[in-house]
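Supplementary Text 2. Reproducibility record for the structural model of the 587-residue chain.

All settings were left at their defaults, and a single model was retained for analysis rather than an ensemble. We include the record here because the model underlies the residue-level annotations in Supplementary Table 4.
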Amino acid sequence: MSPAAAAVLPGTGTDTLLIRRRDPVAWRDWPADTLPLLARLYAARGADTPSLALPRLGNLHAPDLMGGMQTAVELLAAAIAGNKRILVVGDFDCDGATACAVGVRGLRMLGATDVVHAVPNRMVHGYGLSPSLVAELAPLQPHLLVTVDHGIACHAGVAAAKAAGWQVLVTDHHLPGPQLPPADAIVDPNLEGDAFPSKSLAGVGVIFYVLMALRRHLREAGAFADGKGPDLTVLLDLVAVGTVADLVGLDANNRALVTAGLRRLRAGQGCVGLNALIEASGRDARRLTSTDIGFALGPRLNAAGRLEDMALGIALLLTDEPRQAREIAQTLEQINAERRAVQQSMTDDAEQAVARVVLGGEGARPVAACLFDAQWHPGVVGLVASKMKDRLHRPVVAFAPSEPGGVSLRGSARSIAGLHIRDALALVDARHPGLIERFGGHAMAAGLSLPLDSLAAFEAAFVEAVQMLLDPAALQQQVISDGELGVDEFDHRHADALRLAGPWGQGFPEPLFDGHFEVSNWRVLKERHLKLELRHPGLAGTLSAIHFGGWHGNAPPRHVHLAYRLACDDYRGGQAIQLIVEHCLPA
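Retained model, structure tokens:
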């Protein structure tokens, strides 16, 4: 929704505009028992019919629309027919780990008898398929190497694999550079001119599509005794987790994949590794949501790749032994706790740097920020960049040494709406050749490497590129609200319906409401959070609310205008609800 389709609420200050979506004109063909609130929310997101709001697997775009698919399935089919070794190489984030697991499991389901896998270690190999990783994998002597969630920017690694005599199939979703790697086949919906309608597939979605195309190819060749082949929907739990965790846009195609995957997880039909991870995170599988994936499952898998080795996360997703799965899940839980501590320390450092440099003085806030600390961990800079991006509402690049005391930096960039961050890095690279050693990514997130002594020059060039590409109006932060809730909608029925609806995520945002409230009581929790008791006109009694990170040393005003989410209060149980406050403004 564009700001032009919204009404600005008065009295919301100058740093943040609270904007209400306009109510949709109509929504059509909904069953009589559909909650009007849900129909309104779906329609406001452009999905004004059940088929648009709740897309099904039968409505998925056809795999053969994706370029390179025929060559890819012929390579895979030949390797399977010849009992050749297939090596699946993943990536060290959640998308890359789930994509690796889908690739390995799916190929075995389709008849491959010799499938092995590998994943780069962030601290040893760096990103993606590198010549050093290829050299390390040489003893495996694969016939066919398949990259998942990377490869489109791995020219040297692909060339090294080809020089070793291997066939290479690249499956990726990241944006390509001006030249493509010398692979035997490339499947990437974001290649220029590719006809596949959905450009938001995650890496795990791309390899799932390759498997669907391969099954059709094998079926037509008469490879399956039953004439049908295996049911690949059993992999959709992994597809859902990787898709949501990678923050790709949840267009109708992705929502169909995620909805089906969530349905399996809620029914207890997920792989034993994900079931163990859900249990370790303290979530209720029966009520699992895309938010739980984004804030509980994804971070625990990502923690392995950030601080240790993503091989551990992939092992969790590939094991079929419940006991082993529980043991790995507990290990990941411990690594994630360590990650949180490292992240908090780094974020505190970044906050101080921001307060001292970015927000200091009387001048206007700069259009972008570059942050670096010699003590930071390269596996966590992406989280710091994301936190600071939210804090500043500016594009942020955070850097750390590639190794302790090293002179090479690894950076992670996060952007705001209105700036394609990979395009910004590409502009820097074009205007200052050689300044950036390597970069890649997509619209909202990217990674790069450069020498330590180039940091100051990069910062100046990056700020200049952002100034050239970004409309100054995008620097005004906007909070988009779905308006006020009716008095009869402040209940557990509506809160639970919101939780299980969606799936919500990038491009299909979780509902956020706003309204005026009276603060009847408040207290501080853990020296950071505000617990509020609120009164609202027309409601008997009070509403419970919590504002995480909302304590700044001052008592809240008696009358406030809140932007909030309606949630079930599982801690109190029963029919209890609470408001999760996102923004608190004087009324």
